[in-house]
Design goal:
about 20% helix; 2 helices; 4-stranded antiparallel β-sheet; alpha+beta; globular; D-Maltodextrin-Binding Protein, domain 2; two-stranded parallel sheet; single chain
Length: about 100
């Protein structure tokens, strides 16, 4: 087992940057999700919407209807912009399993 970290940023649709204050923060409904906890810690006063699907969060951000803390690999769409580049890292564990022959 080894520890790695996942860099994340705050993403918004490029066309709606001026409306940042009016857009809700999109978070996972999973209370144990590290992105949810980080989002609520960093933006505690922001109105938020809970969603069950990471895909739904990404789609809503791309449509300009919300903002979210996401890893850059999940937001490769050219319509989104990271407005706080690599501002946090989330640690996680990597496990290696030996194959049995």
């Amino acid at each position: 087992m080894r520890t790695s970290s996942l860099k994340v940023g705050l993403y918004i649709n490029k066309e709606y940057i001026e409306n940042y204050d009016n857009l809700p923060l999109l978070i996972s409904s999973d209370k144990k999700c590290p992105l949810r906890r980080l989002s609520l810690d960093i933006l505690p006063d922001k109105n938020f919407i809970e969603l069950d699907s990471l895909e739904a969060i990404i789609n809503i951000v791309q449509n300009g209807e919300g903002i979210a803390i996401l890893p850059p690999d999940l937001t490769s769409d050219s319509s989104t912009n990271n407005i706080k580049v690599d501002f946090k890292s989330i640690p996680y564990y990597e496990y290696a399993f030996n194959k049995r022959t």
